[in-house]
Design a protein that fits this description.
Blueprint lengths: L1 H13 L18 E7 L17 H9 L1 E7 L5 H10 L13 H5 L12 H7 L3 E6 L28 E3 L8 H5 L18 E4 L7 H16 L6 E7 L6 E4 H4 L28 H4 L16 H31 L6 E7 L4 E2 L5 E2 L5 H4 L3 E4 L10 E6 L3 H9 L13 H5 L10 E5 L2 E5 L3 E6 L7 E5 L15 H12 L5 H7 L1
Parallel strand pairs: 1-6, 1-8, 2-12, 3-4, 3-6, 5-7
Antiparallel strand pairs: 2-11, 8-11, 9-10, 13-14, 14-15, 15-16
Helix pairs in contact: 2-10, 7-10
């Protein structure tokens, strides 16, 4: 009997079924379900990442029962392009893949092709019911239309979903909800005459993410009744601007004691072209101060903005908790892989920037947590350098699904089914702003294809953990050792930049 239990555990852990001997009946083991949670603009500034001042009990709970990847990096530091790389498992090949319109350009309106448009479609082809809620690709409801336009029926991923939902509530459309305020107004409807944050004494469902959590819980209850495996993807908006959250989440923090950035100034020996003047943030015209590289905000306003961001993080953490609770209440947690992924980081005044869109550690590093039923050493984090394109092959190997395309990522299967040890050498690649950046366990090397000098930046996180100075000129031997890793990567985007 003990032998049989061990065999069944092994089978479930691998997500597959051993071939039966001749004449034996094949055991029936249901394939893993997948719950994929995407969170917009989420920094790895959570309790699970060692930040004790953060109030993120639900994501921390997931971390204790799963595997936290401490060094996860996105491949592009902007929403649509980051999600496109993650969902396709491919590094960007041309500049269009670095834009928020990547799905509109490459997949929207396209017929079903031999190669799947995303890992979601591949799971659908393999018998999974695929349900999307909220922001999974780029648009908040998975459809192609402008911020001020009426919602369209053109899907960003037309072949991936059995069904896709968003409760846009009083805001009417997905984009209005995405930039929505508690009373029903939205940024574009107010012609940007709004604050970049809001605290209202309202319930969680007064903002869109509360409605998304409720939808996800209802979907889990429905999915429990079916016999086929499912992939449920849930995309939350916060803490993306505007930093809006119910007052009770603001009340969890004492603004006066919140830490300011450990890197409040531009790194030494870099060109300002590597950074930006926080234009996305400054669209919110009622902002009290307008940050720029030459004019940083005051410490008092920086604390106000960090308070707002942290409140939005705690709010979305509570919504994640509702989804995880629903998963457990249905009993589906016993056979469901859970992935929580942040689509990129966000400068909170770091290097005088408020936003993403840089090849900095602050914009490229984001949370990644994966929980597999029965995984060993749950709660032990992994220090391995990993990247978003690794998620696709990881889910395939866990579920026993064969890839239908050549992928750029590497499976993290071993990190999940074994106790993490000393991380093997690995590299994360990122692209943006006419630059290519690689992250190793110690260094970040970035090469820009531009006229403004310097075009090479080197950061040593052993001696300079907050990325305060470019050390390329001081350590040419390190640059020469790492530069071939950029120049030899099989992507054609470098050639585009060289020619223009």
């Amino acid at each position: 009997m003990q032998h049989i239990r061990s065999l069944l555990f092994y089978v479930l852990l691998l997500g597959g079924i051993p071939a039966p001997a001749m004449g034996q009946q094949k055991p029936v083991v249901k394939a893993y379900n997948i719950l994929f949670i995407a969170i917009d603009d989420l920094r790895p500034e959570l309790g699970a990442y060692g930040k004790s001042y953060m109030r993120t009990p639900h994501m921390d709970r997931l971390a204790r029962t799963g595997r936290v990847f401490l060094n996860h990096y996105v491949n592009v530091p902007t929403c649509g392009a980051s999600r496109y790389a993650m969902l396709t498992g491919r590094l960007p090949q041309i500049p269009a893949a670095l834009t928020n319109e990547a799905f509109e350009i490459f997949t929207a309106g396209e017929p079903r092709k031999p190669q799947p448009e995303s890992f979601v479609e591949l799971f659908r082809r393999n018998g999974y019911t695929t349900i999307g809620i909220g922001k999974i690709s780029h648009a908040p409801d998975g459809r192609v239309y402008g911020y001020n336009a009426s919602a369209s029926d053109k899907q960003e991923l037309p072949n991936s979903w059995d069904a896709f939902y968003l409760d846009a509530g009083k805001w009417g459309t997905g984009w209005n909800a995405f930039f929505g305020y508690a009373g029903g107004a939205n940024r574009q409807g107010m012609k940007n005459e709004v604050f970049p944050y809001e605290d209202k004494d309202v319930p969680d469902t007064a903002y869109p993410d509360g409605l998304t959590a409720r939808l996800a819980a209802a979907q889990l209850a429905a999915l429990k009744k079916q016999s086929t495996p499912f992939l449920l993807a849930v995309g939350f908006f916060k803490p993306h601007l505007p930093f809006n959250a119910p007052k009770k989440y603001w009340d969890q923090y004492d603004e006066q004691t919140l830490p300011l950035s450990a890197a409040p100034d531009m790194p030494a020996s870099v060109n300002s072209k590597s950074l930006h003047n926080s234009n996305e943030f400054n669209q919110y015209k009622k902002g009290i101060e307008k940050p720029a590289l030459k004019t940083p905000v005051s410490d008092a306003y920086a604390r106000k903005l960090r308070h707002a961001y942290f409140a939005a993080v705690s709010y979305v953490d509570a919504q994640v908790g509702k989804v995880l609770d629903a998963l457990a209440e249905t009993g589906l947690d016993k056979n469901t892989i859970v992935v929580l992924w942040g689509d990129h980081g966000w400068h909170l005044g770091d290097e005088r920037v408020w936003g993403k869109h840089t090849l900095s550690e602050y914009a490229l590093r984001s949370p990644l947590m994966i929980r597999v039923p029965g995984m060993p050493a749950a709660g032990v984090p992994s220090g391995k350098i990993v990247q978003s394109v690794d998620i696709y092959p990881t889910l395939l190997e866990l579920a026993g699904v064969v890839a239908a395309d050549t992928l750029d990522g590497r499976s993290l299967y071993a990190e999940l089914v074994h106790r993490p040890g000393k991380p093997e050498p690995s590299i994360a690649y990122s692209y943006f702003n006419r630059g290519i950046s690689i992250r190793t366990s110690r260094y970040r090397l970035t090469k820009y294809y531009r006229k403004e000098m310097p075009v090479i930046e080197l950061y040593d996180y052993t001696t300079d953990p907050h990325e305060t100075r470019n050390q390329a000129a001081q350590f040419p031997s390190v640059v020469n050792r790492l530069l071939p890793l950029i120049e030899s990567k099989k992507t054609s985007i470098e050639q585009y930049w060289r020619e223009k």
